[in-house]
Amino acid sequence: MDEEITSKGIIGRGMRVLLRAIRMEPFMFTLGALGAIVHSGTTIAGAFVSGAIVDMVVVPSVENGEPALAALAIAVVVLIFVSLLKIAGMISRRLGAGAMQFRLQARHRRLVTRRYLGLPVSWHQKHQTGTLLSNANADVEAAFVPIAPLPFAVGTLVMLAAAMVALFATDWALALVGTLIFPALFLLNVVYSRKMSPRMTRAQQLRAEVSAVAHESFDGALVVKTMGREAEETTRFNVSADELRDSLIRVGRLRGLFDPIMSALPDIGTLAVLVVGVWRLSSGAIGVAEIVSVTFLFSVLAFPVRAITWVLADLPASVVGWERVHGVLKATGDMTYGNGALDREGPARLAFDSVSFSYEDGTKVLRDVTFDVAPGKTIALVGPTGSGKSTIASLATRLIDPDGGVIRVDETDSRTLKHAELAASVALVPQVPFVFDDDVRGNITLGRDLGSSDPDEQVWNSLRIAQADGFVAKLDDGLDTQVGERGTSLSGGQRQRLTLARALAGRPRLLIMDDATSAVDPKVESAILAGLKDSDNPASVLVVAYRRATIALADEVVYLEGGTVVARGSHETLLAKVPGYANLVTAYERAEAERAAEGEFIDDSEVSA
Ligand SMILES: Nc1ncnc2c1ncn2[C@@H]1O[C@H](COP(=O)(O)OP(=O)(O)OP(=O)(O)O)[C@@H](O)[C@H]1O
């Protein structure tokens, strides 16, 4: 994604981002821009009111030796009126600009996050989590930074145009100074943003890199600590952080060089106005009031002109941020859905019909896989590592789609089901359990309507079948106990059982367990499978199994080797007839006995009644 972002045509691309932002927030932009125009108009008016005051109050007072009180009173009223208008303009400009910027940021954070959830697993596997965090945060912010000064800049443009008209109306020689200074300001701004663009692009990329490295270090904290790699990991982070620092210093250095030049130009203008003005005054072409007005005009212009600089200076970062955000928003690979619906009651049927699948690298992982799980039956999926068991689990839950063949739930091709229909009937309990930073109840319900008059009763029911009710009852606050990042740390087996209870709480009609009870004591695992069969909502089960006891509880075994179904039948038949299967199960049994001897399931052997 990053390679596509170049500094070519940055102003044009930046303007397109701004126009898109204006189209998305027309009301707030209008409020801000109108406020800015009023502010600019009153600033120019202020310059000419000052000139008029010199002409009508100061000069007559000096000439007559007594204050021109009536004119002074009028001047005060006009000045107060102009100032009040200016204040109102400023408030409206700031409100409009602020609301526009923060609303756009919030909206795009939501869009990016929603897009992440919509994109398929394959897309996520290709993108680092740190980069995704940076897209949703730093990039969204950067994309809309120029929005804050945008209405001000628009107002300033109007002000510059009005100032030019006023200058020409006053005196051509003074107008000449303006025609030199104003374009020079623009030119400088353009040069600045051209030079800044590649520096900003690099800084933004490095920001994402720092975030990715940091995320990986935190995620792998356990490995880093146990392997004693803290120093190396810190160095890796420091290298990234130093690179970002240097890159930001390069940005700052350029800003430091251009900023003073940009503030100095209007002052040079003021100086030129004084020189030209004195010459014009001596030749009688203009009066003192005109010189005061124009000098005042140049001095009040110095600050607003910076607003244009702010917008242009932040354009490169905005373009980079926006293009990274847009990269996520336009990412394709979405799954398509049909209108099909499934029954809501009774165990479901799952059928794989000549299914083949390859990951993006092109190697075929599954070939012509055909098997079915009849309603209410438990099928054990057994096979050596890498034979394709997890891939079958992902296909059955439609995390991925097959390249060939059909997967049917009941009698319906799962690709023709409407969105979320499959999730209502089929639940996956993954290999690696995930516990949210929430209480036990929240982790089980996930905010779903469990369709029960007593949701807690249903939560306890699921915990019971998952053999998790015992340890949850012993937690200090029961279902209210915080688990996950902020709360109680759970053992591996407890996390697995909580994840299983979460799947069960949705009363699935088909349960796919992908090695989901590997950290659970074998006795507990058997109790779970037995409980599933006896439950009030019996489901069909496809279980990736290793243990003889688990396999023995299944109605049938599907044995995979190298992505194809080699045999299917009862455990005893396969044991007797398929040497590969017999070797594998015996090897598992030996490994299991070693794990038990090492006391691996010590915290996890409690079986509830
Ligand atoms: N995201 C991926 N991209 C590319 N190849 C993958 C991906 N996931 C798995 N594979 C490959 O697909 C094959 C099947 O993997 P899968 O995880 O389905 O096997 P498995 O039988 O579940 O293995 P295990 O028992 O070790 O969990 C393996 O060769 C694996 O390297």
TrEMBL record:
Annotated keywords: ATP-binding, Cell membrane, Membrane, Nucleotide-binding, Transmembrane, Transmembrane helix, Transport
InterPro entries xref list: AAA+_ATPase, ABC1_TM_dom, ABC1_TM_sf, ABC_transporter-like_ATP-bd, ABC_transporter-like_CS, P-loop_NTPase, Type_1_exporter
Transmembrane segments: 26-48, 68-85, 143-166, 172-192, 285-305
Principal localisation: membrane
Membrane-topology descriptor: Multi-pass membrane protein
GO CC aspect terms: plasma membrane
Chain ranges of the ABC transporter domain: 350-587
Protein location: Cell membrane
Pfam families, per the entry: ABC_membrane, ABC_tran
Keyword Protein biosynthesis tagged: no
SMART domains in alphabetical order: AAA
Start and end residues of each ABC transmembrane type-1 domain: 31-317
Molecular function via GO: ABC-type transporter activity; ATP binding; ATP hydrolysis activity; ATPase-coupled lipid transmembrane transporter activity
Similarity section: Belongs to the ABC transporter superfamily. Lipid exporter (TC 3.A.1.106) family.
Protein name listed in UniProt: ABC transporter related protein
Organism field: Stackebrandtia nassauensis (strain DSM 44728 / CIP 108903 / NRRL B-16338 / NBRC 102104 / LLR-40K-21)
